[in-house]
């Protein structure tokens, strides 16, 4: 029996298997296209002829395929062969897919972790790389060392199947929110006749404000401390009204600033006027 099985040998899966081998662990691998395992076999891995054989070969298996749904499709036929095994799924997907995968694994008697890799394949095995996992705490306690081999900054961040898809959605929304903000900002500047170079020159200033916003978020939301606000929801509403009026006056598409303004207005109407803007987390979470 090997220490770990690696199922899925794309660029990321191959990097995971290579790092496990480099750590001194015995590794069984499986991939739909067996030719992708050639380099790993030369490095000492054992090729399983089927997913069933790969799962049977090790107490813990790391799956890294297209999506959680792909993992479910791949493993569901194994049925009772999953009993007593631990599956660490590092595929991608939404909350519903993660929940369906975990339900299938639990019904088969398997243990589970859902993980998100915050790195390119070249980062696997590095001390600063984080693979964030959610699942039963006792499963993380038993196999977290395997994940930390793949990324030294890896951590257990939750217990629900939807936790990791939720974290991905939150991080993606925050990052892309900044980009789409720049896109809308560029459009209104173009309409207002401002040279785009002048707008672009202010982006570093905005980066500085983003750090302040991050600090405020970390200071207020985890502890739900929204009083004694530096800038209240009401203050933000007034500023958003001013910004929206400029979008309207210049005839610029305003879906994003209007959404922001309407959320602030709703916050004021629902009693958050004197709170920090971050208190809107609580308002939206109640929906």
TrEMBL record:
The keyword Ribonucleoprotein does not apply. SUPFAM superfamilies: NAD(P)-binding Rossmann-fold domains. Signal peptide: none annotated. Residues 178-285 form the NADPH-dependent reductive aminase-like C-terminal domain. It holds the Pfam family NAD_binding_2. Keywords: Oxidoreductase. The keyword Membrane does not apply. Residues 4-156 form the 6-phosphogluconate dehydrogenase NADP-binding domain. PANTHER family: CYTOKINE-LIKE NUCLEAR FACTOR N-PAC, OXIDOREDUCTASE GLYR1-RELATED. This is NAD(P)-binding domain-containing protein. It comes from Dongia sedimenti. The lineage of its organism: Bacteria, Pseudomonadati, Pseudomonadota, Alphaproteobacteria, Rhodospirillales.
């Amino acid at each position: 029996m090997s220490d770990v099985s690696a199922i899925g040998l794309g660029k990321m899966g191959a990097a995971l298997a290579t790092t496990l081998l480099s750590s001194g662990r015995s590794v069984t691998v499986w991939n739909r296209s067996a030719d992708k395992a050639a380099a790993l076999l030369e490095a000492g891995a054992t090729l399983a002829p089927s997913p069933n054989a790969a799962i049977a070969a090790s107490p813990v298996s790391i799956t890294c395929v297209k999506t959680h749904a792909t993992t479910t499709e791949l493993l569901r036929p194994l049925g009772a062969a999953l009993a007593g095994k631990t599956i660490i799924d590092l595929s991608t997907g939404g909350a519903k897919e993660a929940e369906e995968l975990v339900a299938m694994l639990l019904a088969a008697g398997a243990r589970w972790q859902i993980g998100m890799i915050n790195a390119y394949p070249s980062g696997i095995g590095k001390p600063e790389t984080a693979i964030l996992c959610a699942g039963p705490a006792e499963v993380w306690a038993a196999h977290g060392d395997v994940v930390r081999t793949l990324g030294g900054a890896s951590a257990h961040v939750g217990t629900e199947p939807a936790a990791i898809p939720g974290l991905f959605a939150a991080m993606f929304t925050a990052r892309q929110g900044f980009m789409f903000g720049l896109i809308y900002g560029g459009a209104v500047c173009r309409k207002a006749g401002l040279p785009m170079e002048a707008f672009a020159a202010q982006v570093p200033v905005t980066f500085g404000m983003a750090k302040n916003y991050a600090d405020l978020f970390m200071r207020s939301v985890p502890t739900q401390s929204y009083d004694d606000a530096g800038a209240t929801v009401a203050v933000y509403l007034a500023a958003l009204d001013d910004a929206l009026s400029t979008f309207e006056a210049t005839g610029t598409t305003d879906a994003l600033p209007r959404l922001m303004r309407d959320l602030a207005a709703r916050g004021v109407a629902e009693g958050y006027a004197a709170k920090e803007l971050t208190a809107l987390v609580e308002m939206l979470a109640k929906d």
